[in-house]
Amino acid sequence: MIDDPEHKVAFVTGGAQGLGLGITHHLLNTGWKVMMFDRDKDAGDEVMASLDDEPRTRCLFFAGDVTDEQDVAIAVQRTIDRFGRIDGLVNNAGIADPDSGSVEHLDWEKWQRVLNVNLGGAFLATKHATQHLRQTKGAIVNITSTRAFQSEPDTESYAASKGGLVALTHALAVSLSGDIRVNAIAPGWIEVGDWQKSANKSAPDHSDTDKSQHPVGRVGSPNDIAQAVSFLLDHEKSGFMTGETIRIDGGMTHKMIYV
Predict the structure, then answer these.
(1) pLDDT digits over 203-238, tens only?
(2) Closest to 149 measured CA to CA, from 116, 105, 187
(3) CB atoms closer than 10 angstroms to residue 52
(4) Under 8 Å CB-to-CB from 98, ≥6 apart: which residues?
(5) Angle at 13 between CA 252 and CA 186, to 5 degrees
(6) pLDDT of 89-99, one tens digit each?
């Protein structure tokens, strides 16, 4: 096991926009060094330019695709070259296909793309980071979704990929036991419109009905999830947890709604 440095190192996939950007910012703000891996170069460059001098020295950006094994391998190696270690892996990168249509019309390539990114990407990042996480007795956090447990019509590819992440989480927790803890977070409705690159940014606009669906009385924010990620990466705080999926949805999935 490598002795702890002043700052630990996290590898965050999909880390330049949306929920991933919230996680990146939170980890940087709490002293971590971060490899921000994202396919959107413009978004990543924008984030790097926005950081103050000191946190910028602790952040590294690599533009790549989580479904491209060479991209993942290069990004992991660059993290090691720059920071010397990896203590935490956050498998956050994900896509949805809201226009996929009914199951009998779902295009095979669209189905496969969603599974490749959401589930395959987590596998590839884990595959290449594991040797380094073993050395630091690190932790993995997979970002799944409440869609792993409940659905709207015509969301088969997304639900299957997120459900697969729940299963991958407990499988990895057993396979990597003794060296690496593996947990997952299943977010509910998280507002990310104001966490996009400038060209795509939008102001949050939630009706009273939107808010009232949540027993806590509001829609979630990236920081709600980022704080849980930080907790799960911290061995002193969550060292007895592995294989778990934590649902963070403002209580929405526990509220019965009659139509």
Answers:
(1) 888 898 888 889 898 989 999 999 999 999 999 999
(2) 187
(3) 8
(4) none
(5) 15
(6) 999 999 987 67
What angle (nearest 5°) sits at the alpha carbon of residue 217, between those of residues 216 and 221? 80
| Cα–Cα distance measured from residue 101 to residue 217, given in angstroms and rounded to the nearest whole number | 32
One-letter amino acid at 67 equals T
Per-residue pLDDT tens for 19-53?
999 999 999 999 999 999 999 999 999 999 999 99
CA distance 161 to 101: 17
37 token code pair = 């891996």
On whether the CB atoms of residues 189 and 251 are closer than 8 A, the answer is no
Which residue, among 55, 87, 64, has the nearest Cα to 14 in the 3D structure? 64
Nearest Cα neighbor of 145 from 182, 94, 196 is 94
Q: Which of 32, 37, 158, 195 is catalytic?
A: 158
24-41 exposure pattern, b = at least 16 Cβ within 10 A, e = fewer: bbbbbeeebbbbbbbbbe
CA distance 105 to 107: 6
Residue range 105-118: average pLDDT? Answer: 93
pTM of the model as a whole? 0.94
3-state secondary structure of 36: strand
User: Is 158 part of the annotated catalytic residue set?
Assistant: yes
